[in-house]
Amino acid sequence: MIMLALSGSARSNGALNAGYICFEALLQAYDAAIQKKRPMALVTGFLRSTFVFLPFFAFQAYGYLNICVHGDTDELRPWCKAKLPLLYSFIQSHYWGVGFLRYFQVKQLPNFLLASPALSLAVYSIVHYTKLLHQLFQSTSIHEQIIAIVDGRLVEAHESSDVATVLKSEISTGLHNKKQGYWRTEV
Question: What share of the chain is helix, strand, coil (3-state, %, to 5)?
């Protein structure tokens, strides 16, 4: 959690790491609801997420206090007058030219061509996964199908293991010896 908070202090998109903590809290709350326990995971998840967002909020408050409140009132920046004054967003859009869909320009075409193999693999994977999910949701009982898949994988893993191979060979040897008329005895 501390490392995620440090990432949020270095870059504003580090605050998005709180999503991992929120997801974990939701899973724990779901497990608690299934087991009929008190879902304290939501409270701890909220507190942890707040801790991850804290550096981002501290930077915004620091900038607002220094520039908008204690700064020169004659030269207030436009972001000081906004309903939600975010310093980092103003810096990105005004000085760096960063904004929603501003990256999609003709001069960026070589970058998109370089990224096209990874993008096409990602699109293929998403389409394949969506088809598998569609097949899964068409079944009558999703829970039974998931259990069957997991059980099938466990059986396949056991059958491909060395222990299963040794056991199969001992059983087949024992059956062969029984047909021959002699049986191996253990000491």
Answer: 80, 0, 20
